[in-house]
Amino acid sequence: MDTDDLSREAYDAIIIEAEKLTHDLTLHFGVLSSSCKDESEYLEKSRQLAEEIMQMGDFKLKDLLFGNILDKDKLNATLKKIINNIEEVNKIPIDKRDYDF
Question: Where do the structural domains in the chain lie, given as residue ranges?
Fold first, then answer.
C-alpha cells in the first residue's frame, strides 16, 4: 500500500503529526506503508515503530534521523502523540473513515 491509500484520519494521526516535528521522522512512517497490506497493519506497525524509536539511544537516533539531532523530550512527546492518535483512529470503524481516493 501507499500513504495515498490511508484514510484521512490515519494520515493526519501519523504522517502530519510526525511532520510537525521533522520531515526526517515523517519519511520513516511514510516508507513503512509500502510494507503493509492494509491500513490496520500500517497502524499497528506505526505504533511499533514509534515505541522502538522511543527506546533508541542517541547514536541510533542520529542515524535514524539522517544525522540530525532532535530534542529527545520533543521527539518522545511527538511519538506518544502518534501512539495516542493511532488509538483514536482504531476506535473509528473502517467504513466510517474518510478516504481521498
Answer: 3-89
Residue pLDDT tens, the chain, 101 long: 999 999 999 999 999 999 999 999 999 999 999 999 999 999 999 999 999 999 999 999 999 999 988 899 999 999 999 999 999 999 999 999 999 87
Cα–Cα distance list, 39 to 8, 43, 58, 92, 95 (Å): 11, 6, 31, 12, 12
Neighbours of 34 (CB within 10 A): 10
The alpha carbon of residue 61 and the mean position of all alpha carbons in its chain are separated, in whole angstroms, by 15
Among the listed residues 52, 73, 74, the one whose alpha carbon sits nearest the alpha carbon of residue 64: 52
- Is residue 53 within 8 Å of 70, Cβ to Cβ? no
Is the torsion defined by CA of 50, 66, 69, 6 positive or negative? negative
In whole angstroms, give the CA distance from residue 1 to residue 24. 20
Distance, in Å, from the CA atom of 45 to the CA atom of 51, rounded to the nearest integer, reads: 10
C-alpha cell at 73: 523530550
